[in-house]
Design a protein that fits this description.
Blueprint: H1 2-9, E1 13-19, E2 22-29, E3 33-39, E4 46-53, E5 59-66, E6 81-84, E7 87-96, E8 99-102, E9 110-113, E10 116-119, H2 120-123, E11 129-136
Antiparallel strand pairs: 1-2, 1-11, 3-4, 3-9, 4-5, 5-7, 6-7, 8-11, 9-10
């Protein structure tokens, strides 16, 4: 129990999803990472965009993965382009403050976390505009006597 409490105290980030300025989803991120997944509109294959969080709450798109190569899918990146485990892999370093997207009618559009997935269709309606960002929590000082 104490280990679980200490683990939660070390979490500094909350991922927030808003629709029209209203918070519709929040999740504490202890590992500082998440992945947005979607099905590419032309290729009809899964795309994964992997993010990490900077200490100031900025989002860093550090990697993109996809299984097909075609229209609308990039073939170069500042960090390199590779093919690993059956997937095209782009190494990136793109800083974003917020991500704005529309909920797709195509299944498979959501956010992957280390402990599960939230599908956009489960928290919003098709064509809703969503904004994703991170709030930085103040550090808690724990005194042990």
């Amino acid at each position: 129990m104490l280990c679980a409490l200490l683990s939660l105290l070390s979490c500094h980030y909350v991922l927030v999803v808003e629709r029209q300025g209203q918070v519709i989803f929040e999740k504490i991120l202890c590992d500082g990472k998440f992945t947005i997944v979607f099905v590419h509109s032309v290729e009809k294959t899964l795309v994964e965009e992997c993010f990490t969080i900077e200490p100031d709450g900025s989002l860093i798109l550090f990697e993109a993965r996809y299984t097909s190569y075609g229209a609308g899918l990039p073939s170069d990146a500042e960090g390199g382009f590779d093919f690993e485990d059956g997937k095209f892999l782009l190494k990136l370093h793109r800083r974003l403050e917020r991500i704005t997207l529309r909920v797709s009618h195509v299944e498979g559009h959501g956010i992957l976390f280390s402990d599960g997935t939230v599908w956009f269709k489960d928290i919003a309606n098709v064509n809703d505009a969503l904004t994703i960002y991170v709030k930085v929590l103040p550090s808690l000082k724990l005194k042990i006597f």
